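User: Please run a holo structure prediction.
Assistant: Happy to. Please share the sequence and the ligand.
User: Here you go; the ligand is heme C.
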Amino acid sequence: MNTGHIVSTFSAAALAFAAGLAFNTTASAAGDQFAKAAHNYDTYCVQCHGINRNGRGINSTNMSVQPRDHSDAKGMADIPDNELFDVIKNGGLAANKSVLMPVWGNVFDEGEIKEMVAYLRYVCKCGSAK
Ligand code: HEC
């Protein structure tokens, strides 16, 4: 009997299961309330802010200013909701931050940006400073 083969089949199944869990912690576990914002984040934000929302997106290794870690409760709590809104709508420069944070006001309407701000509060598990 080839036990090596059985073991590798087992780990492939375990990996598939783990991948399913990882997906659940982003989009679906956020629940219906944030499903749309989580989907928008996965579409437009992850390349810089990371699939784990920790600022380690695929682009981040080459960036002179590092994307904000949205999972950092303390750092995010220092940023008021209106600044999150402005930076998403008008880009980093709107809050004297880096131009590397793009403008999204032409992609999302104000309701979608508000949902994104609420979703970021869910991601950081932190309240607003103001
Ligand atoms: C091209 C890379 C890039 C993309 C794509 C991007 N960001 Fe950013 N973002 C950044 C960088 C870089 C910073 C840090 C700016 C700074 O600290 O000067 C940042 C900072 C932020 C901040 C913190 C602002 C603050 O006041 O500190 C928020 C909130 C944010 N991004 C939200 C988003 C959202 C939501 C999306 C998707 C709709 C997104 N970003 C997409 C690069 C990006």
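The radius of gyration is 18 Å.
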